[in-house]
């Protein structure tokens, strides 16, 4: 019996050792200014991250594409080092701050460190130190690309008024703003069990009685939501269009109630998807076919003309960026600057 256990333990150790050794084998080598190995383990880590993001297992061809991207990145970083193109910690911090600002705009306040790190983890499948390093590499590659292909990247032309008008006329039927309301909402979360839901219902009924027929009371209750242990959240909920996507998000009952209210009116108690809700409509907007000088999206100052122009410019920039990237990749891959070990990347 002891001998059997010994052999099973030995086989397990040998299996683990064999897997570790396989991970240390080269998937590819890059050699522009020095020899650099991309190990099978590094490739597996990147493939695992991509599979988590995609929610499925990558095919062999897709794994090879992941390796190609890793090779291209290493080549560009070595080329940047050769040509003394660098990125400072301050530049990385600025990019991180921009991401935090974008998140703040989405949630209506500055995110905590824990919230921001969680968002990064969900979006990239990376912890913050690894994300910072990946961001630094991307910034180096971008800066090197700009230094080598500045003439091509600078050749993009801003769309003319005639081009914008043509684009608008070709897609005029798509520029329709659906019936839309803007509203403020008080929400009492249901809680985790039946007892918590009953307490939430009692609080929601107390709030609806306090509002009564006086909409100004609604605003007072919204302000009180910031108090510790208020038991509810409240504030501006933004714009809600009347379309199928909105129905799938908030439910048909909510839609019916919201669009039955006039500006300044307060709803009855709603049993929503996540909690008991009371809403007050602050803006009503009828369905409208948008002209070039109309606001493209409520809550912004961007007109349809500006939206079309920026979209066309972005498309042109992306096309030129793709061309510049392909040209640079071809140049860096010329000669014997890398080698792929096909036998090591089949699993």
Structural class: alpha+beta
Order of helices and strands: HEEHHHHHHHEEHHEHHEEEHE
Radius of gyration: 28 Å
Mean pLDDT: 90
User: How large is the share of residues in beta strands?
Assistant: 5-15%
Side by side, the strands of the main sheet go: 5-4-7-6
Which stretches of 5+ consecutive residues score pLDDT under 50?
Answer: none
C-alpha end-to-end distance: 35 Å
Proportion of helical residues: 55-70%
Biggest sheet statistics: 4 strands, antiparallel
The number of helical elements comes to 13
Task: Based on Cα principal axes, name the global outline.
Answer: globular
**What is the β-strand count?**
9
Blueprint of the fold:
Blueprint: H1 2-24, E1 26-31, E2 35-39, H2 40-54, H3 60-82, H4 89-107, H5 113-124, H6 128-148, H7 150-153, H8 161-170, E3 176-177, E4 180-189, H9 194-211, H10 215-224, E5 233-241, H11 244-250, H12 252-258, E6 270-271, E7 275-285, E8 288-289, H13 304-333, E9 338-340
Antiparallel strand pairs: 1-2, 1-9, 3-8, 4-5, 4-7, 6-7
